[in-house]
Each structure stands twice: as structure tokens, then as C-alpha cells.
What does this fold into?
Amino acid sequence: MALPSYRLHLLARIELERAFPELRGTEWTIRSPFDRGYNCHAWAVCETRVRWEPSPDDYWPPGLRNGDISDYNLDNFVRAYTCVGFRECLDDRFEFGFQKIAIYSEENLGEEWPQHTARQTLFGRTWLSKLGDHEDICHQSADHLEGQQYGRVVKYMKRNWLRALMEPTSVWIRATIQHFWYRRCHPLGT
Amino acid sequence: MPVEEFYATRKPRYDAFLIPDPRPNVDDFYRELRKMWQLPDVCQRVEPLAVLQAKAVSLQQAVEARFLELADQWDRETSFLSSTPKKVLHESYQSIMAMGPDVVPYLLRDLERNRRSWFWALRHLTRVNPVPQQDQGNLDKMIAAWVEWGRNERLI
It folds into this structure.
């Protein structure tokens, strides 16, 4: 198994702020090394072992449409998150007992193409995002990643904490916590 | 007896001891070579074959250099994206696809070394997908499956 790679912290920050200008001047931190092994949609459901996407090369919940370019739409993503207990909600306001996600999308050929998903932290103060192949970051607001790369937030979803713990993806929550703690302790990772 | 007459009478004897010119005569050399091989055409065909081989090697190097240039550009400009359609529709990715099946060995090598996501290009260029369904999304297993396929096909 290939290990994730640690980049020089300052260079990573400069590169990420250049790609996401809204992050400049806000408090945001890098929480993980550079890792191509999972993507933002997987990280939104606490998964770090596989990449989630409706393509023949990635994992997608069984029973959902997968493999065609037309399957890459907002409805399919909403169904996928529904499979792991999420349901639609109105806004990003913190609700005690619920885990929220924000789906970013941009319109292409008359259809919404989801570009990114961010997850609210447990007590709702910040958001977690995996930036493509790059590092995980913790940012203050879901709006800070809106822009040229990911489009805008078009949908919020939530699931309760109990359901989050019961889902198969969260069975690995211990491994996720260990991995997260390892990242926090790494001198170049924080 | 005058000196000239003395040498004139003894010249054949001194000529016998004359040292031959050590400088090689190229024409004689090739003549002897052809005689020795008994295949006069071979000498003329060796050089074009070597030139062809050298040209093939330089062409491969040019393809690899072009591929690496495009791959780096694609990685630099799309590494923040998660959306596969948006990534594969990038100009550099499409240019790599347009290089055709010749680029497959480089894709496999880059997949193994840099773990860049070439699965979409590989599936379309080779018309096969060696990744078992249960391993979809698991990058390590997918890379291992493609590299093994490449080795079986003697591409890497």
C-alpha cells in the first residue's frame, strides 16, 4: 500500500489559497497529507479507503445508476447520500445531533454536475473538505470553497449521529479517528 | 663503382625488406570484408537498419517526453477537482488520449510510479478493464490490477 505524501506545509497553503481565493484571510488548517486514495465525496461520509463517484472506476452504492456520463448528476448524488442515511435540509445551520453535508455543483449542458462535498464537523463550528487529490482542510464556512473550482453550494443534507454511527462506512470510525490523530500530530500536517 | 649503380644492382634485394605502408586502405578493407563474408549486400544493409533503430528509439523518447509534459500540465491544472468528467475533458488529457495505444505503456508506468488516475484513458484505449468489481474505487488494488495486466501483455 502506498503511503500518503507530506508536502511542505507553507507551499501547500500557498497553492491551496491560490486555487481557493476565498480562503485568504480566514482561519483554515490543513488536516491530512496529500493522498489520491479517496476523494471529497468519500470523505463526506467518513470514508478514506475508496473513492466515491458514479464512474466505472470508483465505488458507488449498489443499485444506483453508474458508469455513464449522464449518471453524473445531482439527483444521483442525493440518492447516494440517502443510501447512507442523509436527507435533504434547508441550510448549513448547526443542528444538535445531526451531521450535515454541503454539495457543491456547477451547471454544464443544462444539468447540475456535482463538483465537491464538504462535511460539517461534529459540533458545527467548522467544515471538513478533501480538495481533490490534495490535502483535507478544515474551513470556517461552506461558502469559502465556492468559486471557479467547485461552483456553488446547491444542496444541504443531514443525518443524525446515531445513524452515522450505524452506517457501514462509520464502522471504520475508529480507524478514521486514528488516522486523523496521526495527521494532527504530524509536524508537517498541521 | 658509382653509388647509383651499386643500388641499382641490389634494389630487388632491398625492396624485399621494405616495410609496407601501415596506413589502411579503406577500399581494400571493404573489398576484403565483402570477400570474407561472401555477402556483398550485407555491408550495405547494416547501416540503414541501425539508422532505423536509432530513429525508433528517438521517436519513443519524443512520445514519452510529450506524454510527461502533458501529464504534468493535466495534474497541475486539475488536481483540485474531484469530478472525473471535468478532469478527463481537460485539454491535456484529451491530447494524451489522441496519442493512441502507443501511450499505454507510459500510462501504466506513470500509474505505478505517481498514482495518477489514468483509468479512464486506459479503459478506452485498451478496451479492457482488469479491475474486479469489488475493487472499484480502491486505488491500490486498481493500480495493482492494471500493472499486472500490463506485465501479462508485456507492455511494461
Summary: Helices of chain B lie at 3-15, 26-37, 40-78, 84-88, 91-98, 104-114, 119-126, 139-152. DSSP finds eight helices and no strands in chain B. Chain B touches chain A through 23 residues (CB under 8 Å).
